[in-house]
Amino acid sequence: MASQDRQSFEQFLVAAWYGDHWWLRLLIPFSWLFNGLARRRRRKLQAQFQGRPFSVPVIVVGNISVGGSGKTPLLMALVKALAERGLKAGIVSRGYGGNSAQYPLEVTAKTSVQASGDEPLLMARELAAYGCPVYVAPDRVSAVDQLLAMHQVDLILADDGLQHYRMHRDIEIAIIDGSRQLGNRRTLPAGPLREQPSRLAEMDFVLVNGSATSLPDIDIHGEVIINASMFRHLASNTVIAPQAWSQSSAVHAVAALGNPQRFAATLESLGLEVRLHPVDDHHQLSLSDISFGDDKPVVITAKDEIKLSGDVPDNLWVLDVEMTLQSQFVDRLVSCIHQRKNKKS
C-alpha cells in the first residue's frame, strides 16, 4: 500500500466523506437544507431550459459526487470510440481553474493552461488528431452555441455538466468510482454527493470505473477500466512500455487529482513501491512540488504535466493512461444518439 504525505484540508474532508467519520452526522440538517434548495433550483431551471434542444444531441458526462471518478479519460475514450463509428464529437466544459479574458474560448494545443484550465487543454491536445473542437465557458450554453457556429459536429459532449440545468441535454451519462463508490451516500456538506443517489435512476447510462459488484442497488450499464499505456521521460521525451520500466522500483507519485489514491494504485499494479504526494485537485505544480531531495523517479499524471513550465528535472516521468470501453455500451450509446438525431430531423 502506498505511503502518503500529510493531507490538506480538502483531502481531509474528502477522506472523511468517503470514510463516513462520526462527526459528519452533525452536518445532516445542513444536507437536508441543501437537498431542498437543490431540488427547487433543478425544477426551476429544467422547466425554463429543458426542451430547448440544440441542432445536434448534447450528451452530459459527469458524476453526482465530489472527487475524481475518471470523467476526463471517459470523455477522451468516448470521442475516440464514436469516431470509429463515424461520429464526430465536440466538447464543452466549464474550464475550471482557467481565467480567460473572453468566453466562450476555443481551446487548442497552443492555448495557455491559465486561460483554459488543465482538463480542457489536456483533451484538446489528446484529441487534436480526431478533429474534436473543445470550447470552455462558465455558461456552457454559450459554449455549445459557439462551437456549433464554428464547427460541423454530430454531437456535443458536455464535460461535468449534470448539475448545469440551464443547458438542455438529450443523454446523461454518470460515472462512479468503483473503489470509493458513493461514500457515505449523503449530500453536501455531510457527504460527497451533489445530488441524492436516486438521481442515478434517471440517467440514460451509469458506468463504473472498476468493478460494479459492490453496487447491487444501482442499475449499471457498463464497467470501464483505466490502463497504464506508457511512461514518458519528460527531459528526453523517451517513451517506454510499463512492463519495460527499468528505473528504481521505489518512486514518488505526485497527483493533483480528485482521487490521487487511484493513481498510486495504478502505479502499484505495475509493481512499484509508491510514496504518494497528493495535492489539491487542479493545483498548478511547481518545481518544489516535484523535488524530494533524492534521485528516485518522480511520476506525475498527464493532467499535471500540462501545468508545468520551464526546465524539468531529469528524474521526472509521466504515466499516460487510457480508458477501455465495453463495445456493448458504445453500441447502445450510438443507437441512442441516432434515435435523438432522428427526432430532431
Would you summarize the structure shown here?
This protein has 345 residues and is an alpha/beta fold. The chain has 9 helices and 14 strands.
Computed over alpha carbons, the radius of gyration is 20 Å
**CATH-level-4 superfamily name of the largest domain:** P-loop containing nucleotide triphosphate hydrolases
User: What's the CATH C level of the largest domain?
Assistant: Alpha Beta
Largest sheet properties: 14 strands, mixed
CATH architecture of the largest domain: 3-Layer(aba) Sandwich
**Regarding quaternary structure, how should these chains be classified?**
single chain
Low-confidence stretches: none
Sheet/helix structural class: alpha/beta
Please give the count of helices: 9
Domains, number: 2
Total DSSP E strands: 14
Describe the protein in words.
- The protein has 2 domains: 3-8 and 226-323, no CATH class; 24-224 and 325-344, Rossmann fold, CATH 3.40.50.
- The chain has 9 helices and 14 strands.
- The protein has helices at residues 9-19, 28-49, 71-84, 113-116, 118-126, 140-150, 260-269, 302-305, 327-344, and strands at residues 3-4, 58-62, 89-93, 105-107, 134-136, 155-159, 171-177, 205-209, 222-233, 238-240, 250-255, 273-278, 298-301, 316-324.
- It starts with a strand and ends with a helix.
Brief descriptors of the model:
alpha/beta; 2 domains; 14 strands; 9 helices; Rossmann fold; 345 residues; 14-stranded mixed β-sheet
